[in-house]
């Protein structure tokens, strides 16, 4: 099934990609025939990686790992039907491949496949991996219950940690309006809760300017003491933000955490942090504060919610699902 990768491009900028959290491919480091392709992925050469995977697959070296890796990549770029085809192919080669079942299910949910097909696929997962089925269903219900939750529970305890999500900077390093609005909300909360630590997450994604460092500079200029600000600089997306937040939070004691982001991003950001904390057994209330704006078309954001929360839940990468199966 050949497709044109029109929305997938190789990165041509100056960002040191090795400094950022990887997007895809970390489960295949021991697969020898994928070594060069993984190197391309590490350097954000996604289109080139897909072209090389196509060559590998069409040359007769169609292994389960090459099909799974390609399925992971195309699903992240919204080629969901192509991903379903790839996972179907894996299941014809190995009908009990639980990873392919899970990834296929996620794509079916994202494209809003008919309920009967989703139920059939859920049942296949239940028969092959009952524990994984229970966890998948619990995660799916959590997303469905909260994907349009724009009014999150207010923090009942005084906020002692503020988690701010970054956003793409302009080419000259200046702040786009969406990010300025997030920082205005942070400044307001910082004044209301003068002892709260402020985590700022965002790497150099679009250009050489590091989102977290530019955000920190603005907050310092607003009079917030530097010892309250922690800049986390490796995230390239919401999943990366959560990984950075959790790495910082896990060894420290916080009781009341507030997510700060834009209104359209709020359900996904709030669910992501809730899921990340649940995964490490961390007990803290999580509230949210959003910028004042009108919510536009939410269909893309809802699709991203499924993809993001399943990734954070450990239901997206092969190595994470293998770990869940062993627990």
UniProtKB/TrEMBL annotation:
It comes from the Bacteria. It holds the Pfam family DUF218. CDD domains: YdcF-like (cd06259). Residues 160-274 form the DUF218 domain. GO terms for cellular component: plasma membrane. GO terms for biological process: Gram-negative-bacterium-type cell wall biogenesis; peptidoglycan metabolic process. This is Uncharacterized SAM-binding protein YcdF (DUF218 family). The lineage of its organism: Bacteria, Bacillati, Bacillota, Bacilli, Lactobacillales.
